[in-house]
Amino acid sequence: QVQLVESGGGVVQAGGSLRLSCAASGRTFSSYAMGWFRQAPGKERDFVAAITWNGGGTYYADSVKGRFTISRDNAKNLVYLQMNSLKPEDTAVYYCAADRFPQGSNWYRAFSGYDYWGQGTQVTVSS
């Protein structure tokens, strides 16, 4: 089993940056593909970014491509989401998630495919 704890959220002005971290427990962390999702009030949980178990593949939603970067450090059981050029529409609760057996070419987009989820961290971007 994997437990996930996000941190690094906060309030930032438009154009600013934040780095989210997701700390994972468990010795099998390096076996999991990891993803970041976000959910704004009254909206569905949307895919943001994902990374394969070894960091060899990264995937992004069109809305964040070129602004956000996902990375991982398997030695430290950490996943990061570097967010630059933030916009008010990026305001949401951000969740990290772990997928033990990614399947299909678009595995990273489907939140139902992820096995474990963190509690989320709030990101608020003011205009």
Walk me through the structure.
With 127 residues, the chain is mainly β. The protein has no helices and 11 strands. It has strands at 4-7, 10-13, 18-24, 33-39, 46-51, 58-60, 68-73, 78-83, 92-99, 116-117, 121-126. The strands form 2 sheets. Strands 2, 4, 5, 6, 9, 10 and 11 form a 7-stranded mixed beta sheet that branches. It is globular and about 40 Å long. The mean pLDDT is 95.
- Biggest sheet, in brief? 7 strands, mixed
Tally the beta strands.
11
* Rg on CA atoms, Å: 13 Å
Low-confidence stretches: none
In whole angstroms, how far apart are the ends?
Answer: 40 Å
Q: Provide the succession of SSEs.
A: EEEEEEEEEEE
List keywords for this structure.
mainly beta; four-stranded antiparallel beta sheet; 127 residues; seven-stranded mixed beta sheet
Q: In terms of topology, how is this protein built?
A:
Layout: E1 4-7, E2 10-13, E3 18-24, E4 33-39, E5 46-51, E6 58-60, E7 68-73, E8 78-83, E9 92-99, E10 116-117, E11 121-126
Parallel strand pairs: 2-11
Antiparallel strand pairs: 1-3, 3-8, 4-5, 4-9, 5-6, 7-8, 9-10, 9-11
